[in-house]
Specification:
Helix content: 25-40%
Radius of gyration: 16 Å
Oligomer: single chain
Shape: globular
Number of strands: 8
Length: 188
């Protein structure tokens, strides 16, 4: 993460109460792995970065930020990972992400200016233009990067969400609490 972040970015990040994201290409590297299921069919597998997972736990614990995932695909691996991380909103098999997004906004009671969305592909564009803090991962399509207020240094599936969470937590004055939790910063 850059040492000096623009004031507008920090102002937007301070307001975030809901962190939404795409899955394939953001939480994963976008590769889909198919393996035999032992019954003549196949099962789809995905890899999730453990640093992203820890970061999502921290932002819930220290900032009270809720999480939501909107994916164009359906996968049992995504369902299980969302359960493990206590993701409040999970929508799968939604290539059009605007309807799930609008439902989340209604249900959560969070204003659009208080939402951060992280995306990588064209299907994310309708949501990115509506939220208070649109973010693109490093491997996002150029058109998506052009919509973002922040582009991560890391690609999706390689701790890009960790980077976003650190930005949000630093802006909200909560990052030092994470460091204290692990003995990396002592109260003086």
């Amino acid at each position: 993460m850059p040492k000096k972040l623009p004031a507008d970015l920090l102002r937007r990040a301070r307001r975030i109460r809901l962190l939404l994201m795409d899955v394939d290409g953001v939480l994963t590297d976008g590769l889909l792995y198919y393996a035999p299921n032992g019954r003549g069919g196949v099962v789809e597998n995905k890899g999730f970065d453990s640093q992203d997972g820890m970061a999502m736990r921290w932002i819930q614990e220290f900032c009270g930020v809720r999480l939501g995932w909107i994916s164009g695909r359906e996968s049992p691996a995504v369902t299980e990972r969302a359960r493990q991380l206590q993701v409040a909103y999970l929508y799968q098999n939604n290539l059009s992400k605007l309807a799930p997004y609008e439902e989340i906004v209604r249900d959560s009671g969070v204003a659009e200016q208080e939402i951060c969305y992280v995306g990588d592909d064209l299907t994310d564009a309708p949501v990115l233009v509506r939220v208070g803090l649109p973010v693109a991962v490093a491997n996002a399509r150029p058109e998506v990067k052009a919509l973002a207020r922040y582009v991560t240094r890391e690609p999706g599936g390689r701790a890009a969400i960790r980077e976003v969470v650190e930005l949000l937590m630093r802006a909200q004055g909560q990052w030092d609490n994470v460091l204290r939790k692990y003995g990396l910063l002592r109260l003086e």
